[in-house]
Specification:
Layout (H helix, E strand, L loop, with lengths): L1 E6 L3 H12 L4 E5 L25 H14 L4 E3 L2 E6 L5 E5 L2 E10 L3 E3 L15 E2 L2 H4 L7 E5 L3 H11 L4 E5 L9 H8 L4 E4 L2 E7 L6 E6 L5 E5 L2 E4 L3 E3 L29 E3 L11 H21 L1
Parallel strand pairs: 1-2, 1-6, 2-3, 6-17, 8-15, 9-10, 9-15, 10-11
Antiparallel strand pairs: 4-5, 5-6, 7-16, 12-13, 13-14
Helix pairs in contact: 1-2, 1-6, 4-5
The structure holds NADP nicotinamide-adenine-dinucleotide phosphate.
Length: 304
């Protein structure tokens, strides 16, 4: 019987692992892919994590991981398939590598990118349609590309792509970006970035490779094509909360309802990071959740 099992190794899961080892809990940390690290590994540069200016997302993630390993956290590479809660409160965790019993469970599985759901997106995925600028951007050196979205990720992606691409179109459905003002300032200062306001993608065109996007201006209804070799979709995220569907309370978007203590509606089940309903999704708030979740686990273990 474990004290706590953590699912997920983004900033929330890894921080929970750090706090869990320091609290001397009997603990396992499950990760679906080796050193998966979460969304942060796809960020070229993180400039708002205190004390580590301009660190790459990959390096920051590695630092979290090394810290947890140094303290003795035990990682298991296996997908968690199912959680069950027994009458006495024991959680049964079914995974690819076997079934485990634990008194407390922390879901820190984060979120994944949303799709545009337009013609051409699926068929040209990997052939010009990408969801990760830092993974695929290098293929578009000297080319024209489009970034779809107006949040932090879209703007970070556009800034990153503008370093190597000839022209970067940022297509946004409103006339104002959602991204942090500092990122906006950087974006607007780049000579090879062109904003396409009030516009949505109607379709992505191309036979075997993307060669254009058709965009519709939602204010005047006009449709036009822009020639591009790559389309980077950055229209937000969807929580990876399926494991706890039907077990804990969630909102209509699938985000788990839990306050800052990370306690869900079921005693002994906690949620941390982007999978939790919260006002601000950042690396630092995910890390804070990891710390809060384990502190709540410790209280639960004493009280239960
Ligand atoms: P986001 O903040 O939810 O932004 C999504 C963007 O896509 C919005 O501009 C939205 O438009 C647009 N959009 C949504 N659906 C669309 C559709 N169907 N068609 C066209 N546009 C669509 O998501 P994100 O940028 O992926 O960021 C996710 C979270 O991670 C955010 O909370 C963000 O702050 C956080 N983040 C943090 C850091 C950091 O800590 N350094 C870095 C990156 C991201 P509207 O603006 O009109 O809604």
């Amino acid at each position: 019987m474990y004290d706590v099992i953590i699912a997920g190794t983004g900033p929330a899961g890894l921080t929970a692992a750090i706090y869990g080892t320091r609290a001397r809990l009997k603990m396992l940390v499950f990760e679906e892919n080796y050193m998966s690290g979460g969304q942060v590994v796809n960020t070229y540069e993180v400039d708002n994590y205190p004390g580590l200016p301009e660190i790459s997302g990959m390096d920051l993630s590695l630092k979290f991981r090394e810290h947890a390993e140094k303290l003795g956290a035990e990682f298991v590479r296996a997908k968690v398939n199912k959680i069950e809660v027994k009458e006495d409160g024991t959680k049964i965790v079914e995974t690819e590598s076997g079934t485990y019993e634990t008194r407390a469970f922390v879901l820190a599985t984060g979120a994944h990118h949303r799709l545009l759901n337009v013609p051409g997106e699926e068929s040209l995925s990997g052939m010009g349609v990408s969801y990760c600028a830092t993974c695929d951007g290098a293929f578009y050196k000297g080319s024209d590309v489009a970034v779809i979205g107006g949040g932090d990720v879209a703007v970070e992606d556009a800034i990153f792509l503008a370093r190597g691409c000839r022209r970067v179109y940022v297509v946004h459905r409103r006339d104002e970006l959602r991204a942090a003002k500092s990122l906006q300032e950087k974006l607007f200062s780049l000579p090879n970035v062109e904003m396409v306001w009030d516009s949505v993608v109607d379709s992505i065109e191309g036979e075997e490779q993307v060669d254009a996007i058709r965009i519709k201006n939602i204010k005047d209804g006009t449709v036009r094509a822009i020639s591009v070799d790559g389309v980077f979709v950055a229209v937000g995220i969807t929580p990876d909360s399926d494991l706890l569907k039907g077990i804990v309370k969630m909102d209509e978007g699938g985000y788990i309802l839990a306050d800052e203590s990370c306690r869900t509606s079921v005693p002994g089940i906690f949620s941390a990071g982007d999978v939790r309903k919260k006002p601000l999704r950042q690396i630092i708030t995910a890390a804070a959740d990891g710390a809060n979740a384990i502190t709540s686990v410790e209280k639960y273990l004493i009280e239960a």
